[in-house]
Each structure stands twice: as C-alpha cells, then as structure tokens.
C-alpha cells in the first residue's frame, strides 16, 4: 500500500481557510490540491474536535489530533527495522528522556551494530514513545481590539502565464487576535522587503498599526527563533 506523508503546514492551511469560511472546492483550487484531499483534511479536523464558528482557531493540540486521524488505517507495515526498535525500546526511551537528539540515538545504536533507517526510528519514536508531541495547549486570552496581530505565510493560488506555465503564489496573511478579520497580501517571493510592504498594506487596510505583531517562524522576519 502506498503511503503519503501528510505535511503539517499543508493541513493547517487547509483548516485555517476552511475556518475562515472558504468552500472546500475553493480551498483546493487556491492551494492546487485535489478536492478529495481537502475534504479528508476537513473531516479529520472535525473528528479531532474542530468546529467552524466565530473565533475558532487551529491550535497545536488540535493539529496533532488531526494528523493522527489522517494516518492510514493500520499504518505502514512494520518490518525488521521496526522489530529492532521494539527490542531496543527501553534504551531509546532512556536516551530520549535524557534529551539526546534522535540523530545521535541512531549513531549510538550504529556503534552497537544496529543500523536503523532514520525514518523508521523517527516513526517509532513518534508513534510509540510520543517523541516530539507538543504539550496540551494552554488557553490564552485574546486581549483587546487593535492590540495583537498574527502574521503567517502560505500558498494561496496558481497563476497561469501567457505561455501556459503555472506558478504557485504565496501570501502574507494577517489575522487580528480578537476580530479574526483577515487580510491577505499575495507576493511572488517571501522576503523581508515583501514583508514590509505587506505590513504597510495591512496598516492601511486596518486603519492603524497594531501594538504587537506576532509572526510565524519565517526567515524573512525572524532571524533566530527564541521560545
């Protein structure tokens, strides 16, 4: 059975657009995806507890549950490498508890003659040992109108040139924490210059400058991420 790795960013963008009121076919067209895929993402989100309504957002906890719902029934078939992971379960768990990087865990196992593919080790660590799973999301107050603005980027549509070539277009997406009244600024490149231009357009659109701009971890804005 073929297995397709589901991208977290892709799923999150589909769910965000759906929450904003976009139809599933419209989302598929904007993101260049199959409508069936969009429907499956939305169905998984609803099964995970996502409810379309005012103020609904895609939290990390809900996104994790959605990705779990999207796993193929029965998962990928387990082979010899998975059996080795099972045999070394206690050792792997101990090293991860000591905050040893998974890549180093693999090297330590290799020194003992256990050559495990990183993809299998990573999948085992996530599915069995809970590696990389985020802690439950803590509810945060939305604050006051005009106080905080979230900015993210994502794919929004396809453009067809005169020669028939198709090009995917990204956009800066601004979302106020309180009203959720979204502003989208399409760009050809995700750069610092386009980020500045997008912000200036957003200030004009909203009629003022927000006190706090909370960007996603985009290199065009964030040089070094800091928790």
How is the secondary structure organized here?
Layout: H1 8-19, H2 24-31, H3 35-47, H4 60-69, H5 80-87, H6 89-97, H7 102-111, H8 118-129, E1 148-160, E2 166-176, E3 183-187, H9 192-206, E4 212-215
Parallel strand pairs: 1-4
Antiparallel strand pairs: 1-2, 2-3
Helix pairs in contact: 1-3, 2-3, 3-4
Walk me through the structure.
This protein is of the alpha+beta class. It has three domains: 8-69, Arc Repressor Mutant, subunit A (Orthogonal Bundle); 80-129; 148-215, no CATH class. It has nine helices and four strands; from the N terminus they run H-H-H-H-H-H-H-H-E-E-E-H-E. A hairpin with a 5-residue loop joins strand 1 and strand 2. It is globular.
Overview in brief:
The chain has nine helices and four strands. With 227 residues, it is α+β, with helices and mostly antiparallel strands.
